[in-house]
């Protein structure tokens, strides 16, 4: 699904906005995040230079995180007060909390590893949601998430520009 979503952005925004803006937007979107941004930026797709793509993806991925950490519980509380939105919010909370054991146990390091290892269902958005639901303070959560995004950036740069770029580029 994430590959199809990434292609949707490339196809629908291509020719209308710059390649760098496409990469930035993809990096901000939940599910895709930095991983999708760096894949999209790589040689097989948009072919954005690595030295430009990496900071664009990091900034794009981190931009929504303070808002999630500071506001999501209030937004979810409001949404749970509506009959139509309550089931969706409860499903999101349940899904996020099902991945929270190591974050709850190790807090900073658990959050950093959760965000930093680019696997399906992990990333800055989910990490920020879990941190907010667990009540981890912003001063601890944001640096862990930021370092996790940097770690994921290193891993995805090697994959996107090294391995995948070498095969398809």
UniProtKB/TrEMBL annotation:
Signal peptide: none annotated. The chain crosses the membrane at residues 21-41, 53-76, 108-136, 142-168. Keywords: Membrane, Transmembrane, Transmembrane helix. InterPro entries: Sm_multidrug_ex. It comes from the Bacteria. PANTHER family: TRANSPORT PROTEIN-RELATED. This is Putative membrane protein.
């Amino acid at each position: 699904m994430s590959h199809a979503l990434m292609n949707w952005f490339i196809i629908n925004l291509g020719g209308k906005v710059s390649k760098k803006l496409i990469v930035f937007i993809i990096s901000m979107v939940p599910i895709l995040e930095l991983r999708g941004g760096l894949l999209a930026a790589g040689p097989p797709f948009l072919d954005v230079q690595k030295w430009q793509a990496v900071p664009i993806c990091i900034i794009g991925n981190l931009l929504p995180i303070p808002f999630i950490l500071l506001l999501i519980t209030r937004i979810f509380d409001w949404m749970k007060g509506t009959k139509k939105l309550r089931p969706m919010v409860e499903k999101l909370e349940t899904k996020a909390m099902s991945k929270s054991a190591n974050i709850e146990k190790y807090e900073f390091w658990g959050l950093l590893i959760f965000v930093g290892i680019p696997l399906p269902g992990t990333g800055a958005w989910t990490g920020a949601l879990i941190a907010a639901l667990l009540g981890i303070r912003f001063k601890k959560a944001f640096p862990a998430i930021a370092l996790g995004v940097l770690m994921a950036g290193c891993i995805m740069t090697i994959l996107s520009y090294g391995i995948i770029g070498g095969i398809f580029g």
